[in-house]
Amino acid sequence: MDLIPDLPSGPLDVYRKQASFNWKKMKLFLESPEDIEIANEAFKYMEEEPIFQHPDRDLTLEEERHLTFQRMKKVYNSDILYPDDLFMNRNKHRVLNNVISLYDWSLLARKSLLIEFPMGAFLGLGTDRHRKFINSLMNREIGFAFCLTEISHGSNTKALRTEARYDIESESFILHTPDFEAAKCWAGCLGKTASHCLVFAQLYTPDGVCHGLHNFVTPVRDPQTLQPYPGVTIFDMGAKIGLNGMDNGVIMFNHYKIPRENLLNKTGDVTVDGKYVSPFKDPSKRFEGRVGITEFGVINLTKALTISIRYSAVRRQFGPENQGEIPVLEYPLQQYRLFPYLSGLYVLHCFSVKLKDRNMSFRLAVMGGSEDPDYLANFGQEIHALSCFSKPYSGWMARDAVQESREACGGHGYLKAAGFGKIRNDNDANCTYEGDNNVLLQQTSNWLLSLWVARQRTDFTRFPMGTVSYLNQYNKYLNMKWSSDTFNRNLKDEDIIQTCLDTYCWLVCWLCKATSQDMETLKSSGKNKFDIKNNCQIFRAHNLSLAYGERVFITWFLESIKEADVSLQIPLYRLLALFSLTRVLKHVSSYVEGGLINGENVVITNIEEHITRLLSEILPDSVSLIDAFAPPDFFLNSVLGNADGRVYEHMYRKMLTSPGSVTRDTNWQEMRYNIPSKL
Amino acid sequence: MDLIPDLPSGPLDVYRKQASFNWKKMKLFLESPEDIEIANEAFKYMEEEPIFQHPDRDLTLEEERHLTFQRMKKVYNSDILYPDDLFMNRNKHRVLNNVISLYDWSLLARKSLLIEFPMGAFLGLGTDRHRKFINSLMNREIGFAFCLTEISHGSNTKALRTEARYDIESESFILHTPDFEAAKCWAGCLGKTASHCLVFAQLYTPDGVCHGLHNFVTPVRDPQTLQPYPGVTIFDMGAKIGLNGMDNGVIMFNHYKIPRENLLNKTGDVTVDGKYVSPFKDPSKRFEGRVGITEFGVINLTKALTISIRYSAVRRQFGPENQGEIPVLEYPLQQYRLFPYLSGLYVLHCFSVKLKDRNMSFRLAVMGGSEDPDYLANFGQEIHALSCFSKPYSGWMARDAVQESREACGGHGYLKAAGFGKIRNDNDANCTYEGDNNVLLQQTSNWLLSLWVARQRTDFTRFPMGTVSYLNQYNKYLNMKWSSDTFNRNLKDEDIIQTCLDTYCWLVCWLCKATSQDMETLKSSGKNKFDIKNNCQIFRAHNLSLAYGERVFITWFLESIKEADVSLQIPLYRLLALFSLTRVLKHVSSYVEGGLINGENVVITNIEEHITRLLSEILPDSVSLIDAFAPPDFFLNSVLGNADGRVYEHMYRKMLTSPGSVTRDTNWQEMRYNIPSKL
Hints:
CATH class of the domain at 29-110 and 291-440 in chain A: Mainly Alpha
Helix content of chain A: 40-55%
Radius of gyration of chain A: 27 Å
Oligomer: homodimer
Mean pLDDT of chain A: 95
Strand content of chain A: 5-15%
Largest interface: A-B, 138 and 138 residues
């Protein structure tokens, strides 16, 4: 327990003493001692280094980027943040990335995109002939930007229009951007920094045949002068809503030549004389990005909820007659606004850890090559379906939690120094990149609907992660009905969770069935495939993806609880019951439509009563539940959320010591009034 | 029609040609020709004046405030934006305020708070002896900040702790701030600008009796030097999430003397020898603030939806096989994400116009003094209940619409130049000031529940605005049941709306009944009043406030439609039907609990089918529906939302001409790479 320092005493003690469990044990349930140790060392290092100190004043865009650049250099040169075994030790890499994320998302993005992502691309798509680029990257002689999205195409990658035409005479590819709409954009580190790009372009052989998107190593700036090469035009995309420590850029190529060898040729190559050859197909789809972004939500939920729960436990307003004011956290409505997200944080955290582990098992199995191809295909499908759900869900949950937290902190939550503005602005990007949330979510339902069609000839237990095994019993579930006893008052939390899981099994089966039926109806009315799919999203396919994923969230957290120390299980069951019930309650329309509810109106009331009970039971634990996640104050960087709970003292100090707080405006002479008459 | 210039031709023409109505007629349904003329002149003036040009680069906090200050001066000195009859012509004032709001919220806040709010306060709370302050305000010799909220108290104004003790000897009040937690904060224009404050403080007479909150005119800074006076400490609150053109401040008084006459003494005074006298009680509660903020949501919805709908109509992605790509607006899911807010914009706009009118009628009736006091009391209660609903609802609707619009514009929506960041950050404050949204909403349900208790001895038709008249028939409504024919497919939009209204009548009655019953149960279990109220918020009282208000929204918009040109009625009915159905669908849990649904699961499916139909019917009108609201491009200030729809050209121009876009970073020397090996 020496690993986890005690928290400072203050107004939060009242709640901390009420907790039903030891928060340090809870922290060890969430993170291993090794991870805590790695993180502690990194926290300490960053907190002490001058370059990581928080500036006193707002920075201009250029200052913010410059500072982020300097910090990135510091990260690269630090044995603690960038140890030699970083790429060998995935877990250490993950923990250190989380520490940097807690500090600043722009810094994480910069240091990941410039060097680490291209490393991955060379290993995944390149061959021996690209080793020189890896060496140069290791020596910091070059830095990369990843160019996929174009101005007029994002989600529809097949429609990308940047061309790479092979020229036999010069043995080179000629990259060309037909017009501004085909310019590569949003590429991180491209605005001012990158010397090279990894450009996805349509590969054309001299016979005029297009072989689809391939990736080309493309030098774009002189690493010495940072000037773009002739034939390359680069725009900086300027300020964004958030992530302004990162310089995103736009790039256009004007018949720009690059050597033939710069094609990353693992899955397709062009011979010197211009023939396209495809050595083998890589069966492993890559979901690294989405799996990783799922975890981003955990970081943002952690920060937002640490601030709002601690502040709500200290902030007093109104109270029972003649009894003084009470902390706003005592209000059931305030609990209802925050605790479902607190439960979501726990559930999402455990999910994202497991998803990473299982994704790793999958990739090892693919690399091993000895597994049954069917098994691998099923495994890959599940990972794909889950990550297409969890990436959007995580970003949206964080989005909503940040906003609710901001509002739950009232006026003071609107101060920049409260920290919510930055969390919100940075999290916002997660809802869009690596696949727009709404587009991505369709992948999950598409897969489920394709399974449903084949349900009579499929054994759903063959999917290795078990996320669809209940589809074997679709008949049983479709016949399910809620009785007036469902969710009755005397139900224990474990049983509540089980009932929620059954409800989700019903819901997934029913939504599969209902969506398929709607699609059939549309088909018989003559609609094309494209329209049929789009016309079933709103009330059906969208909810299907959510229902499938929420059920996995619950299932996996339940597994985690069973592995937890006994002293932690009661509070964890409460969290999961709250999570499950609040999510179940969002699907009531489907229960009515599908006939799960049929005159049993008492069930909803039962659910609501359980939620109300759970909120009051979680209340005494709530501060400790968030303490187990909370980063050090330096990383939270919020006047409202410090571990000592001394909110007003921190506000006072911040205001008193902010440059210019008590002095006149520099332009005060202009701001004076007309000569006043005697008042 | 000369009043309304034609829109430029471009990619949006396709949709504009599909519209079922004349968008200029629609604009005239929304605004009178007089209002359009006033706005046009103001738009033109601001668009031409150098000081209102949009800067090319990000400003620092100090620069942003300075520029806003200069703009405020320009407003004050402009015959167009600040005409002589401004205070005599409330409608002109409203229209000009809307123009300024469309331009910049900070500018509106600054110019309103510094001079206009104190004018109102002097007229409302002051007497003849304060005329000199009005004169000085008119001459711009002084400027005010309004000081109510304290560091540790916002919503609970009774617990405010700043003291004003009357001192007989010096015939003055001595203002004192006991500690930092009692410091006045969030006062607009206080950080750097105001020479005077209107301070709400607890008035103590020499006998030690506290007479509650009163308002004191308090000089705080020398108008010539802008230095605070001795005895006054002022902090600038620094950067906020948004509204950074405004300087909010904190102020503390150290036994600070002000003349006896500086008490605004309309409703209470202290004699020279220290006796408290209360001339009369002012019966009119003031809801100006909340009524006004309801309209703020309209402005933010307008801006966000103009950008997202126009962009969605131009942005193409995917399409049916071999048929090219289609605008993303063609996707039902995209329509479902945006059109309910578009309908909300129409409904909210008409509501806020009517609410302002009725509030004005109420105030005139109070001033007239000839009306029946019961009538006035009922009128006042309705205005209070409605504005306590509409202020939160409007802020939240705008919040959600801005966020959905941001996400609906994908990656490009994340550019600062898209405009959503600023709209979101500025709108965010609306959810908190003038009463925290969640706290305010309780006022509405409190009132309804008090009416419910007295239902058997109340004639609800006596409430002048008719917002509760259906409570007379509570028995009829409580016996209502949906049949399988409710919302059947053949229903016309007018009938759908009527069915939604009936549903709301049922819902309000049932929520009144259910909440009251829950309260009785809690009472008999021994809970105190305070806890009883708080324990009924989540699933009951909160929804009750929403249901009451949503019904009024629908009712009032229905009135407006009936007054509209016949050619506009079909599209308007569609909007209202969509608004009503999507809102009705949010209360399904209550229908199940209250037994309105009882085995009739087809009703929900009917509702969903109508929504789907309405989306497709609104689609061809959608661009023109938002055109009728859209401000000139200069005010929208978004590369994605221009009236010509030439999105990519505007993006190109913006990036090409932004300072530093194609040059190296100022710090490029530091950003160079290690000396590279030969690549």
